[in-house]
Amino acid sequence: MRQRWRTFLAGALVAVMAGCTSDQGSSDGPAASPAPSGDSGGGGSATQPSGDNPLAGQTLFVNTANPAVSQVAAWEKDKRTADATELKKIGERPNAEWLAGGGTGVGARVDDLLGKAAAKKQLPVLVAYNVPDRDCGQYSAGGAGSADEYRQWIRSFAGGIKGRPAVVILEPDAVAHTLEGCADNATERYAVITDAVNVLKAAGARVYVDAGHPNWIGDVNKLAGALKNAGIAKADGFSLNVSNFVRTADNVTYGDKLSDALGGKTRYVIDTSRNGAGPYDGGTTVNGGPSWCNPPGRALGEAPTVRTGKERVDAFLWVKRPGESDGACRPGEPPAGTWWPEYALELAKRSR
């Protein structure tokens, strides 16, 4: 997926799982100021009226089988008590679970995750990330080998839901890439995403089609058209900022404009995992690597919650897992999607 930051002209709009992304979108894989209140860590329809949050009252799922929890235990054993305490900001909070590949066996993984969430009476957030020609064949290349293979995969994914509550973030970057990145396969991509929306909705999931981030597609009307082609009308809304660093306020400004372009009633969710300090603003490169990849000086963002205080924002979510690498963009950095405890620690330390 993509993440390189663009320099916009004055007046432009603020506009399972690998990580280092190419030019514009999110790094896959799977940023902590205080939660707005209540449901974090424990825990809409595109045609629903604004103000009607379909996730209201839900408690988001915390899967304690995560690398941050394991790291906390290891550091406590090594007497790194202060560092372990910092890292609990990540390990004890809800995070999305990424599903990228696995063939038709993906359904068993979904079933397992939803079973664990149901046992805790919590709402899981899943990421479907397997579209053909994923990331336009760049840093997070991969995905299903064909449209038919993807249709089989998404049906297996949906089969694991079995009518239980779940949120699905559908194909990060895929729609935005049809406008900038790999437009040649746009028609097929719109078709498989539309099909995925229908299949997942029929299984009972809340579905948010990914729409990139504010610093990517500046023309919200153009993006709205692409989302319509990708079946947004049948989804619960769209997602923004997956694996990116754009501040929440800028996402809300952009998201409301995009919602207006879709008719004014479309709701959305925002990935706040690593946006506490905003994007790196010191140039397009840092320490010899691209500034979108594992940038220094970043911080955890708002903790996951369905109480956002924003009219059309259903949830602040941690879609990207803070501490997973965006890629081996500099000597010594781990591959994309690999847990990187020292980077995770810096994100946690800088959070408010």
From TrEMBL:
Family the UniProt entry places it in: Belongs to the glycosyl hydrolase family 6.
Transmembrane segments: none
SUPFAM superfamilies: Glycosyl hydrolases family 6, cellulases (SSF51989)
Biased composition (Low complexity): 25-38
Signal peptide: 1-18
Record keywords: Carbohydrate metabolism, Cellulose degradation, Disulfide bond, Glycosidase, Hydrolase, Polysaccharide degradation, Signal
Highest rank taxon of the organism: Bacteria
Binding site for substrate: 98, 213, 216, 244, 292, 320, 324
Organism the protein comes from: Virgisporangium aliadipatigenens
One annotated GO biological process: cellulose catabolic process
Disordered: region residues: 22-58
MF annotations from Gene Ontology: hydrolase activity, hydrolyzing O-glycosyl compounds
Active site: 135, 173 (proton donor), 326 (proton acceptor)
EC number annotated for this UniProt entry: 3.2.1.-
Protein name, as recorded: Glucanase
